[in-house]
Amino acid sequence: MLYPDTGRAPQPNPDLPDSVERIYLEAASISSKSPRGAAALLRLAIQILCKELGEKGENPNEDIASLVRKGLPERVQQSLDIVRVTGNHSVHPGQIDVDDPGVVAKLFELANIITEYTISMPNRVGAIYSSLPDSAKEQIEKRDKKP
Questions:
Q1: Which run of H or E residues covers position 22?
Q2: pLDDT < 50: residue spans in the chain
Q3: For residue 145, is it left (φ>0), alpha (ψ between -120 and 50) or beta?
Q4: Model's pTM, two decimal places?
Q5: pLDDT score of 97
Q6: Within 13 Å and on the Cβ side, how many CA atoms surround 55?
């Protein structure tokens, strides 16, 4: 047996917060045996990720709405909502076939995409931006200062 047991799920984005990564890996370890259980765990993972992004972490729908008001790109919002809705349907009868391993595989992919856009990319861009000369950053701040 290999650790971590990720089944067919992709490895988690390395920037995934530890609290979310644990749930992601748990979902991955059961994904081939219980796609429905994995979908429910991934929904929990995005709820915790929303909290890591500064939201309350109590209601994913409200957290996503708050992130949208703060400028979350539409594609990231859609990704969050896909995982949220599909995860909800995994524990409530609905029209989404969460017993399909292909559906769950897409949820893992979306979890990594969400992390890329909300954590990885801002970290990389921030690191590059911080390397600009202070004088250039001051000019940018002055340019963007609201009257």
A1: helix 18-30
A2: 1
A3: beta
A4: 0.85
A5: 66
A6: 23
Q: So what's the pLDDT on residue 95? A: 63
* Cα dihedral: 27, 29, 4, 124 (round 10): -30
Residue 115's pLDDT is 97
Structure tokens at 73: 């790109």
Of 10, 44, 31, 20, residue with least CA distance to 99:
31
- 4: phi then psi, degrees, rounded to nearest 5: -80, 150
**Which class for 52: exposed (0-12), middle (13-18), buried (19 or more C-beta within 10 A)?**
middle
Verify cis geometry, omega within 30 degrees of 0, for the bond prior to 4: yes
Q: In a 3-state reduction of DSSP, which class is residue 147?
A: coil
> In this structure, what token pair is assigned to residue 78?
């859609």
- String of DSSP letters for 35-99: HHHHHHHHHHHHHHHHHHTTS-SS-HHHHHHHHHHTT--HHHHHHHHHHHHHHHHHHS--SS-TT
The kind and range of the H/E element at 144 are helix 134-144
**Region at 57 (left for phi over 0; alpha for psi -120 to 50; beta for the rest):** left
Cα 142 to its chain centre, rounded Å, is 33
